[in-house]
UniProtKB/TrEMBL annotation:
Belongs to the aldo/keto reductase family. Keywords: NADP, Oxidoreductase. It holds the Pfam family Aldo_ket_red. PROSITE patterns: ALDOKETO_REDUCTASE_2. It comes from Meloidogyne javanica. GO terms for molecular function: oxidoreductase activity, acting on the CH-OH group of donors, NAD or NADP as acceptor. Residues 2-88 form the NADP-dependent oxidoreductase domain. InterPro entries: AKR, Aldo/ket_reductase_CS, NAD(P)_OxRdtase_dom_sf, NADP_OxRdtase_dom. This is NADP-dependent oxidoreductase domain-containing protein. CDD domains: AKR_AKR1-5-like.
Amino acid sequence: MVQNSLNCLKCGYIDLQLIHYPKDWGTSDKNPENSDHRMRIYRVFEEYKDSGYIRSIGVSNFEGRHIDEIWDNVKYRPVLNQCEFHPHLTRPELAHTPLASRSKSLFTDPVIVSIANRLDADISNIILSFAYQQKIGIIPKSGNASRIKSNISFLDIASKLTKEDIVLLKKLNKNHRYSDCDGWNVR
């Protein structure tokens, strides 16, 4: 996989190689072999790092227990873990997908809509500002130039969120994921 990526990218090394999901395609979360698979792939990445083909190793969608499992058993600890974070899934220790793949449920949440209306702001800016106020690193994905521009403008809104807004947004936590990662696994 690493060599294929290097060939496709036409470069000599990869800055950051991620293990994108903590289990194999179609495998149950409860499969006891998952732990062995994670460790095996991680060690292969470490070999590529030792050879200079990978600069850093990271993970994505790993829960705390997955991180704990590898933390003291690897040569190079993961430099990052990107995990979903938004008002309906607030886990400040783990965060990614701040706009929840633009989930209708999140974008029509009455509390978020009310705050957006009061501040005359785009709903995505309220959601991004919430993450920013929690000191969560946010990188919203978009291929649309106008959305990218709009997403950057959340910085103008972030300072306008009140402590009360943050408290209300924190109360929205449902521990609900909107990003289904199973389709991203390597087959």
